[in-house]
Design brief:
- With 259 residues, the chain is mainly beta.
- It has two domains: 108 residues, Quinohemoprotein amine dehydrogenase alpha subunit, domain 2 (Lipocalin); 113 residues.
- Helix content is 7%, strand content 55%.
- The strands form two sheets. The chain has an eight-stranded antiparallel barrel with strand order 1-2-3-4-5-6-7-8. Strands 12-11-10-9-16-15-14-13 form an eight-stranded antiparallel sheet, with no helix packed on it.
- A hairpin with a 2-residue loop joins strand 9 and strand 10.
- The longest helix has 13 residues.
- It starts with a helix and ends in a 15-residue tail after the last strand.
- 22% of the residues are buried.
- The N terminus is likely disordered.
Length: 259
């Protein structure tokens, strides 16, 4: 009985945390574009190509953009070892880590003479499926025979691996408006951002795709001191339609002619 217990303990201790799917090992070619950092202070970007466990690619410090070649190996348990030395993976700069999920690598980076080591983390670079121009417009009865116009719009675009949102809400009458422009958003499946509207209210928002629908959520974080604050009722959740695969050039500050 004692031997059975010892065997079970060993199996539990040495069981790998993750077994990667066949797409990571057996595809003739798989590409990973990753964003992350070394010691949280040094932001880096990594491009890796996997051919049945053999890795080639490069990384660069986001500040300098100089590509540094990488070579390495990936096993079926998610262990990955990368080096700047093509012939010996123990020489040069070394990244020794593992996939803790199929989109996240964590481990340690070592300098060439191995006198320094820092934690590194890399995450799959996310390209939102919703870059473009989105809108919702409708006409409503404002009373006394007056037809009102309501509009919510958002332009989402990319610049240097960062995502930005330019959005606005109008309701006329009585002419209430929330507006914001060029707000950096998180590199995530849900784009999260903070802003200050035209009435000095501080807000936070989310933009995401769910069940084929595009949703923008707006929430007040801190109300302004203005006693007449007509836009608070506009903070809500809205479903938008995708109008174009590209943001509007007249809203994008990095369009040709605006740079």
């Amino acid at each position: 009985m004692k031997y059975k217990i010892m065997l079970l303990i060993c199996l539990f201790v040495f069981k790998p945390l993750i077994t990667l799917s066949d797409s990571y090992i057996n595809k003739s070619s798989a590409v990973y574009d990753l964003l992350g950092s070394i010691q949280t202070n040094y932001k880096i970007t990594m491009h890796l190509e996997n051919k049945k466990g053999s890795i080639t690619g490069y990384y660069y410090y986001d500040t300098y953009k100089t590509q540094i070649p990488l070579y390495g190996q990936l096993d079926k348990h998610g262990n990955i070892r990368l080096s700047t030395d093509k012939k010996n993976l123990n020489k040069g700069e070394v990244f020794s880590g593992r996939f803790i999920t199929e989109e996240t690598i964590t481990g340690k980076w070592f300098n060439p003479d191995k006198t320094k080591q820092y934690v590194f983390e890399m995450f799959k670079k996310f390209t939102p499926p919703f870059i473009g121009y989105f809108n919702q417009e409708r006409v409503y009865d404002a009373g006394e025979g007056i037809r009102g116009h309501f509009s919510v719009w958002a332009d989402i675009y990319e610049k240097d691996s960062m995502y930005y949102i330019d959005f606005g809400i109008t309701r006329d009458p009585p002419g209430q408006v929330i507006g914001a422009a060029v707000i950096p958003v998180n590199n995530n499946n849900t784009l999260e951002f903070f802003f200050t509207d035209g009435w000095d209210n501080k807000g936070k928002g989310k933009f995401y795709k769910k069940e084929g629908k595009y949703i923008i959520e707006l929430e007040v974080v801190e109300k302004s001191e203005n006693p007449w604050n007509p836009v608070l009722s506009l903070y809500s959740n809205y479903e938008l339609k995708k109008i174009s695969e590209k943001p509007r050039n007249d809203r994008n500050p990095w369009s040709p002619g605006k740079q």
